[in-house]
TrEMBL record, chains A, B:
GO terms for biological process: guanine metabolic process. The lineage of its organism: Bacteria, Bacillati, Bacillota, Clostridia, Lachnospirales. Residues 56-421 form the Amidohydrolase-related domain. This is Amidohydrolase family protein. Keywords: Hydrolase, Metal-binding, Zinc. It comes from Holtiella tumoricola.
Length: 421, 421
């Protein structure tokens, strides 16, 4: 598609460079951004222009970590820490997705609500059930969003009703699922998804690495979220030097492999080194880490180490799908960490949070999350007229207010890779 | 007014007793709640019944601390700590309220947005300007909410453009304002409002105590919010043993005086003793304390000390007027404090947050914030059908989800002291 959006443009070049332009023209040619201009360049004069008036045009946001089956109990059951929370609320709910009818109804609400957010790209956990996960992918495909989806693997330390019978069985089901879905959808792709180290045997992790290599798929999992979890990993894999080392030993953190790890609240120096060397993405999920009293990840330290980072909603340990909220929480929690834990790490700025939400997380999907030339054309149009104020605000200030105050009513248009959705 | 609301009833008796009733009848007689019943008692059979169906009926909430003139810049300027934030953003904005036209426009938006929340009672700061504060009171009166409003007093350590010329001048203006407004409005009453200790001379505090005694008005101010602020108070009043002691010495924390103090992030044992002995209310403003990187107040400790507590939105250091958000933040910040600072203080529960938002803060206004017999009839009707889920939820679970997920669309009815607003 070739077209131009005109409006109040706002995008990131880097964590410290937020570019804004009043009455800017964002040019889309063959679904790719050709850049932002104050006047339409000669080459694009024939393109149709959609005038967004005073509305704000931002790049689409990336949600690097969320759990679709948990959407049914969002906003509930926040009174436990991770391992107890999984057993009390999460595993019983995820077990219901063995029923494809349940899955279809639940995932339809999830997908349609996700569509109403600023998110254009996402990494999403399903459950261990291949057919239900395929249904989730069908629903997501219908939204027009571009996503990676994982059938979850778990062969130990899970309740019987949600535990695959063996590593072999888990991998057979996973391969079968991959073969079914990998060419079935245009925008919805499979992802290798060991739940987390405690629920995966060494054999399973090893075999999943083989599958990853065979199909060249990206990987998502959880890392160093909670202190009890970290201790459990050490007990289960006593030969490992740290939590990340387990994934590394089994080839799931590796230069040959595109991996995103949720949380990373307590990464050691060694883990940071592994993340950096292998360019593993951190999916920072600040609301989730607060709700489950896990702690606050030292995001600035990871940024200083040049570890790639994006944001995650992590429903249902996070209550909301909105990445605006994740931005807000990332900032506020970085302030609390600065105040209460370590004042050598300055709080995150709005510019940094905006970067993490767009280009930071978007880069997991390629050239995504900016309006620089060559980026896939993901855009969101925001209308803030219901938030009127007597102040004359800059585009940056208006965008900052959206982070604190916007809801689905403020999102009035959305494009994914050049297509309006 | 005599009437009955029928629906899914939810209210607090105490921090640990949340009462819920399906298809309950909440009876209002002469604007006072007569209790909640499973069937309509004989004495009320003639009352009209409003059937709210599956909707949730909760008591109105109290916002014990917010700044109306700051509403114009909500969601902006969160990059500084308290004293710098006041100088950079707050004082310049408050100075604009010398212009009554500006005040009228700005306050109209504030009042109409406050009406759209669950708040039925509030303690509200204006500015130093008496006429503009009167305009704020007019706008609030029109909403039907019941509020206390303060013309702010500041005679030192404020920029020239926002500093009253002397204690005497400040008090003359305040008395004149009180005489004008105290019988002008039914639901909107004046409150003594020294901004905070740093901006008030000892002479001003002394004179404000005289005014308080003369007119028997309640008092609102700020206490121990930020470490730089606390140090400044110690420098300004070296003879005081603690920040609260300054208010105490000048009679503004006193058994004879109904006082609410915002924040109390860093109260010492001595301050807690003063608060308890004089039954001073703490207005806990968790979002504000996080946004300005002030810290996290030890609310459970205050509860254990039997200090009365309610919640405050504290716009514009808080970005949102919603007390649902204040509840959410109170819980989440108590988890972070438990995790990062002091694991002897358990995180707040949903029941406790609901209590603080309703009966806890409501009690500042009398018998307000519950559906127990004898309470003034403040009620809010919540519709959660847009948050549909496949799960069968209890009323408590539905109310908990509202705390995380509700916005103004979910608030479909509101009564203040028996009157629909």
């Amino acid at each position: 598609m070739n077209f131009i959006l005109r409006g109040s443009v706002c995008y990131s070049k880097s964590p410290t460079e937020l570019v804004t332009l009043e009455k800017g023209y964002v040019v889309c040619k063959d679904n790719v951004c050709e850049g932002v201009y104050t006047e339409i360049p000669e080459a694009y004069k024939a393109y149709p222009v959609k005038d967004c008036g005073e509305r704000i045009i931002i790049p689409g946001m990336a949600d690097l970590h969320t759990h679709a089956p948990q959407y049914t109990f969002r906003g509930l059951g926040m009174d436990k820490e991770l391992l107890d929370w999984l057993n009390a609320y999460t595993f019983p709910e995820e077990a219901k997705y063995e029923d494809e009818g349940y899955a279809r109804q639940a995932y339809q609400k999830f997908a349609s609500d996700l569509k109403q957010t600023t998110t254009t790209r996402a990494c999403i956990f399903g459950t261990i059930h291949p057919h239900s996960t395929e249904i989730l992918m069908e629903q997501l495909e219908a939204t027009g969003l571009i996503t990676y989806v994982g059938k979850v693997n778990m062969d130990q330390n899970a309740p019987d009703y949600l535990c695959e019978s063996s590593a072999a069985e888990s991998v057979i089901a996973t391969e079968k699922w991959i073969n079914t879905v990998q060419s079935k959808f245009k925008n919805t792709k499979p992802m290798i998804t060991p739940r987390f180290v405690p629920s995966c045997s060494g054999e399973l992790l090893e075999k999943l690495h083989d599958v990853q290599e065979k199909y060249q798929l990206p990987v998502q999992s959880h890392l160093s979220e909670n202190m009890g979890e970290i201790q459990l990993v050490q007990e289960l894999f006593p030969q490992s030097s740290c939590y990340a080392d387990v994934y590394h030993q089994y080839g799931l953190i590796d230069k040959e492999c595109k991996t995103v790890m949720a949380h990373c609240v307590y990464c050691s120096e060694e883990e940071m080194k592994l993340l950096k060397e292998n360019q593993v993405y951190v999916a920072h999920c600040p609301e989730s880490n607060a709700n489950l009293a896990s702690g606050i990840a030292p995001i600035r330290k990871y940024m200083e180490h040049h570890i790639p980072i994006g944001l995650g909603s992590d429903v249902a340990a996070g209550s909301k799908l909105s990445i605006f909220y994740a931005m807000q929480d990332a900032i506020v929690m970085s302030k609390m960490r600065w105040r209460l834990v370590d004042n050598s790490l300055a709080p995150l700025t709005f510019e940094e949070a905006f970067y993490l939400a767009t280009k930071g997380g978007g880069s997991f999907f390629g050239k995504v999350g900016s309006f620089e030339p060559g980026y896939e054309f993901d855009a969101v149009i925001l209308d803030d007229k219901n938030l009127e104020t007597l102040l004359q605000l800059s585009i940056k200030e208006r965008a900052e207010r959206m982070m604190y105050l916007a809801d689905d009513r403020n999102i009035v248009g959305k494009y994914v890779a050049g297509k309006e959705v």
